[in-house]
Design a protein that fits this description.
The complex is a heterotrimer of chains A (about 350), B (about 400) and C (about 375). With about 350 residues, chain A is of the alpha/beta class. Chain A has one domain: Rossmann fold (3-Layer(aba) Sandwich), CATH 3.40.50. In chain A, helix 5 runs parallel beside helix 7 and helix 7 runs parallel beside helix 8. The mean pLDDT of chain B is about 85. Classes of the chains: A alpha/beta (about 350), B mainly alpha (about 400), C alpha/beta (about 375).
Chain lengths: ~350, ~400, ~375
């Protein structure tokens, strides 16, 4: 009698995910918002060091559309990684709200929601060496998420899933018993991708996944992420400091400077008609692998103190200058950008 | 009287200084005077004030805990054994005992004693007198009458010593500790100097000729010191110094030669530890990128060694300087026992054996105070030599 | 050769051979790892020309850094030159042994900038001290003179407010600023040759662009020779005059920057170029190099690149290819250049490289001030 009851309890604990999927519910409840997967409203992120508070992000509004790859580009210290980490709840949000499938995921949320979120949102880290536990073998690393949420029927099923994933990222299943330090940087990043993708997430945050890699290996990792995204219709937030990389993989690109999004547009449009001077400087910094073109190119440096003369009465806002193309500007700048758009010609 | 005035003046000055500098820092006073801001709003100063205030609290807590722990472990029951005498009537013995306890500050309930303890430790000038009792009879009944003698104004009072085979009986714990500390420090400070003078070149040479013969011998020596129990090692040195070189076996305050065995033993032992750390930090620095860059700039190996590597390797070690010097005040039990030095290193054992509650308390308080100070000084010295550390959060 | 490519070659006339500053002949470098000898540089020969910039490009582990370390005697303790010569100003650097041998060369004549500016500077000494130290030592300036000169140099590398920043410590600077300071130190050496060992890899693109421009600008002023090491072919188009592509401890292609970008001959160079994301387009996956670079633990037979080479022939797995001279300035080490080899088409991306880049440049050209013409 007692034994049976115990068994029942155990079964209950083993149920992988709660029967009611909060996030599915959130999608159904707001069908009008269904094309937006992540919403950030008036988000503020600050770090406290002693009694001094450093505000990294303030008044951030950003929508990520379902199924898109959004490139988030900025220099180190711009807050791009902070945003990614806030989405996955590593960094605390001190103001505003973040929703995922119309369910609030910032600040205090129920344990259940947080647990469920972990199966839906995954992160790929910059340094493939640092982010993998060096004491654990590849099998353990890749199936960690599966184990934590019991997303498999039995041991055989788990092993099969892991082996399939290994093959999918181009690593031999024999490698499962090896340890991270036995692999090259590119291979380790593929292990990181396998660990992320095995959870079949809806939303992936790729935080500079290729910055630490040799150029020849970057392409491989980029292709892999893109393949997964297209195959599974995932949503990806791709964080980088290099526009050339982001153009290849993104549908839309958001440029961030000093905690503010200064320009968002469709990837190609951003390259055709960049308006914000910081975007232009980023574009001019991308090296062209062509000596003749490169020699003629001029590097535009961005100096916000000289360029912008913002006053409190006319504070800069993110304004839609053409459909889907937003620029941070004040009234005189908006005029100037509109003129520039006319000169550059409309959307093709 | 003079002590009273000086004592209160000092306390007033310290408190006023702290309040003043806090006001300057908050820019309530001299908010715009750069010179005043620089001196009194100095982050290092405020960091130190904060640290000292917070450590006062932890010292008070430590006092409280040790007070009760000692009361549980040691009851001064044997205190009156000295008055046991069959010739005396029992009531006289009782009276004598009571009077004695009173004079030692051990009368009253445990909370009364605690309050008295805190009162005497809190630093402000107070009059402390020795009370002796004499048996007289008033109206035929035996009565003990107290005679107050030897009155002094002191700031810290840690109680009195009793039962130390009579020699130091009735002495103030403060006086007792100061006199013994003096002896320990006289030897300890020379040992520290020797330790540093030997340890640094030892570590530097080991690092410079890494994996060479000197390094190997040095590492072997360090390993031996680590492996052999301290006492055994001390006796080896005793044999060496006193049997072979014929230095005096027994400490004699008037004979400087008799200081040497303890100084050398302590210094040479400490040097091995310092050498080990110097070597470790230097080897770490050897492989640093900036050393490679310094070499590629064309600097000579000697310059890289002295200007770049040594400097950087010493920075983490600077933290240990104050505690080494202050540690010299605490003496060494084994060495003081071996060479018959009347230092403070032996005091805790003596106090413990003789159930001297006040002395135990005093020593613990004193050790706690010294370690707080040496940590604080260590942090401050590190901040001075390492520009990366700032106290403005 | 297509018509377009011919035109490009015409446009850049080959100057008469400039003066050679470093002549490397048959250089081999070995390392002893756990008692085992491995050859990391395998018999390479190349020349560095005066006043030019030579870019050495390759993946990590290709031997590019090791090669230049032999120029300043900075090889790790377990490494040594096993054969060959490095001729510099009549001296054979390969024969140098002691630090005393190297002292007149290091810094004074050949200076190096390293990859990570965050760790290249001594964290406990001021910026000013670290620059003026070099000036006092190499040029015998007094303390005051050295300070004045150091401030001049800080201004040269565009550190704002240089006088005030003289007494700053490295931790107060960002990565880009530190790399500027490192460059200022290299400037203080007034070297004939400046080795830049991945100077921008750890930096953001915007900062990278500025640093590269700065190095180039200063070179024009000071007329030194630059050896620029990188894993990213994309960044050297602007700075390099000549490019040496390294793979598996060997130089597989060597030529002028035009040779290598517009007429690359080695399949490895093709693969390196084709994998640049700048050349990618949304409609097709980026091409990439399969597999891993060779490990030196076992002996390499044939062409080291063969296992990863889509164009590999049977002979590549058996026999090491010789260096084929394509033009007076251009040579490559691949059997594909042997007259007996079948003709192969280069990847489409490589053939279209200039067109694709010109198109990309058009976009940028529409922005004001982005181009000279």
């Amino acid at each position: 009698m007692i034994n049976e009851e115990e068994l029942k309890v155990e079964e209950k604990q083993q149920t992988p995910v709660e029967e009611i999927d909060l996030f599915e519910q959130g999608r159904k409840e707001h069908p009008e918002d269904d094309d937006t997967i992540v919403k950030m409203r008036d988000v503020r992120i600050a770090f406290k060091i002693g009694s001094i508070e450093r505000v990294i992000i303030n008044h951030l509004n950003l929508d990520i559309k379902r199924g898109e790859v959004l490139g988030l580009v900025g220099e180190s210290g711009s807050g791009k990684t902070t945003i990614g980490r806030a989405l996955i709840r590593i960094n605390k949000v001190s103001g505003g709200e973040i929703t995922f499938n119309n369910v609030k995921i910032s600040g205090k949320i129920p344990k259940k929601t947080e647990r469920l979120l972990k199966t839906k949102m995954q992160m790929i880290f910059q340094d493939p060496g640092d982010s993998l536990n060096d004491r654990a073998n590849i099998d353990y690393i890749v199936s960690e998420g599966l184990r934590a949420f019991k997303l498999y029927k039995d041991e055989e099923d788990r092993l099969q899933k892991v082996q399939q994933m290994m093959q999918r990222v181009g690593l031999r299943p024999e490698y499962l018993n090896r340890y991270p330090h036995e692999f090259s940087g590119g291979q380790r990043q593929r292990i990181g991708i396998a660990r992320c993708m095995i959870m079949n997430p809806e939303f992936v945050i790729a935080d500079e996944p290729i910055s630490a890699l040799d150029v020849s290996i970057r392409a491989q990792v980029l292709n892999l992420i893109r393949e997964f995204q297209q195959e599974r219709k995932m949503t990806v937030l791709f964080i980088a400091h290099d526009l050339s990389v982001v153009r290849y993989i993104s549908d839309r690109i958001a440029v961030i400077y000093a905690g503010h999004i200064v320009e968002i547009a469709e990837a190609n449009r951003l390259f055709e008609a960049p308006l914000h001077p910081y975007t232009k400087s980023l574009l001019s910094a991308v090296p062209f692998p062509d000596p003749k073109v490169e020699r003629k190119k001029k590097i535009i440096t961005y100096n916000p103190h000289e360029l912008h003369h913002y006053v409190l009465s006319d504070a800069p806002k993110l304004v839609e200058v053409e459909p889907g193309h937003f620029v941070r500007c004040n009234t005189p700048e908006l005029e100037q950008y509109t003129k520039e758009l006319e000169r550059l010609g409309g959307k093709k | 009287m003079a002590t009273f005035i000086v004592g209160y003046a000092l306390i007033f000055l310290v408190v006023a200084f702290i309040i003043f500098s806090i006001l300057v820092k908050k820019k309530i006073l001299f908010g715009h005077t750069i010179a005043m801001q620089r001196i009194f709003a100095n982050p290092l100063l405020h960091y130190s004030i904060r640290r000292i205030l917070s450590s006062l609290i932890s010292i008070a807590l430590a006092m409280l805990v040790t007070f009760f722990l000692i009361r549980i472990a040691k009851s001064p029951s044997e205190l009156c054994a000295r008055f046991n005498d069959i010739k005396k009537p029992a009531e006289v013995i009782e009276l004598q005992c009571k009077a004695y306890k009173e004079s030692m500050g051990l009368s009253g309930s445990i909370f009364e004693q605690l309050l008295r303890f805190f009162y005497s430790v809190i630093p402000f000038p107070k009059l402390i007198c020795q009370t002796s009792f004499d048996l007289t009879t008033i109206n035929g009944a035996p009565v003990y009458k107290g005679f107050i003698s030897d009155c002094r104004t002191i700031v810290f009072d840690l109680g009195r010593i009793y039962d130390l085979a009579g020699i130091d009986d009735g002495m103030l714990v403060t006086d007792y500790m100061i006199s013994r500390m003096g002896i320990s420090f006289k030897i300890g400070i020379f040992a520290v100097i020797l330790e540093l003078a030997l340890g640094y070149p030892f570590g530097i040479l080991m690092a410079k000729y890494q994996n060479g013969w000197f390094d190997r011998i040095g590492k072997g020596y360090i390993m031996i010191i680590d492996a052999i129990p301290g006492v055994a090692y001390y006796y080896i040195w005793m044999a060496l110094l006193c049997n072979l070189i014929k230095l005096p076996y027994v400490y004699d305050a008037d004979n400087v030669l008799s200081y040497l065995p303890a100084i050398i033993t302590m210094g040479v032992t400490g040097a091995s530890g310092i050498g080990l750390w110097v070597r470790r930090y230097m080897v770490d620095e050897f492989n640093a990128d900036y050393v490679k860059f310094a070499r590629s700039k064309g600097l000579s190996e000697n310059r890289i060694m002295t200007v770049h590597i040594l400097r950087n390797a010493v920075v983490p070690l600077v933290r240990t300087f104050p505690s080494a010097v202050i540690g010299a005040l605490m003496g060494s039990y084994y060495l003081e026992n071996m060479y018959g030095i009347n230092g403070i290193g032996r005091a805790l054992i003596i106090a413990n054996d003789s159930n001297n509650v006040w002395l135990i308390q005093g020593l613990i308080l004193f050790t706690a105070f010294l370690s707080v100070i040496s940590y604080l000084l260590g942090d401050i010295v590190t901040a001075i030599v390492d520009p990366r550390i700032s106290f403005t959060s | 050769m297509s018509k377009k490519e011919e035109k490009i070659l015409e446009e850049t006339p080959v100057a008469q051979e400039p003066e050679v500053v470093i002549d490397v002949q048959n250089l081999s470098v070995g390392f002893t790892v756990r008692g085992k000898k491995i050859n990391v540089i395998r018999n390479i020969s190349f020349k560095v020309y005066k006043g030019e910039t030579l870019a050495i490009v390759g993946e990590s582990g290709s031997g590019k850094s090791v090669t230049t370390k032999t120029f300043t005697g900075m090889l790790e303790k377990n490494g040594m030159v096993t054969s060959g010569s490095i001729m510099f100003d009549g001296m054979n650097l390969a024969k140098f042994k002691t630090d005393d041998d190297w002292r007149p060369i290091r810094g004074k004549r050949i200076a190096t900038i390293f990859q990570d500016p965050m760790t290249s500077l001594n964290p406990l000494l001021t910026i000013g001290f670290q620059i003026s130290e070099v000036l006092r030592l190499h040029h015998g300036l007094s303390k005051q003179e050295a300070k004045e000169e150091a401030i001049k140099l800080l201004k040269k590398v565009r550190i704002p407010n240089a006088e005030a920043r003289y007494d700053d410590y490295p931790f107060q600077y960002s990565g880009g600023m530190r790399q500027r300071v490192v460059i200022a130190i290299a400037l203080a050496c007034r070297p004939e040759i400046l080795i830049c060992d991945e100077p921008t890899t750890a930096l953001d693109v915007t900062v990278q662009a500025q640093i590269i421009a700065l190095i180039k600008e200063l070179q024009e002023e000071y007329h030194w020779t630059t050896i620029f090491i990188t894993h990213d072919l994309g960044v050297v188009a602007n700075v390099a005059n000549r490019i040496a592509v390294m793979y598996g401890g060997q130089i597989v292609e060597y030529g002028t920057v035009e040779d290598v970008f517009y007429n690359p001959a080695h399949p490895y160079t093709w693969a390196l170029l084709a994998s640049l994301p700048q050349l990618g387009s949304k409609d097709e996956p980026l091409s990439y190099i399969k597999g891993n670079p060779p490990s030196f633990s076992s002996e390499i037979i044939g062409d080291a690149f063969a296992p990863r080479n889509a164009y590999a022939m049977n002979i590549d797995f058996v026999k090491e290819p010789p260096m084929f001279q394509i033009s007076p300035t251009h040579c490559a080490k691949t059997w594909l250049l042997d007259p007996r080899a079948p003709k192969v088409e280069k990847p489409k991306v490589i053939q279209e490289l200039h067109e694709r880049m010109k198109r990309a440049a058009e976009e940028l050209k529409r922005q004001e001030g982005a181009f000279d013409d």
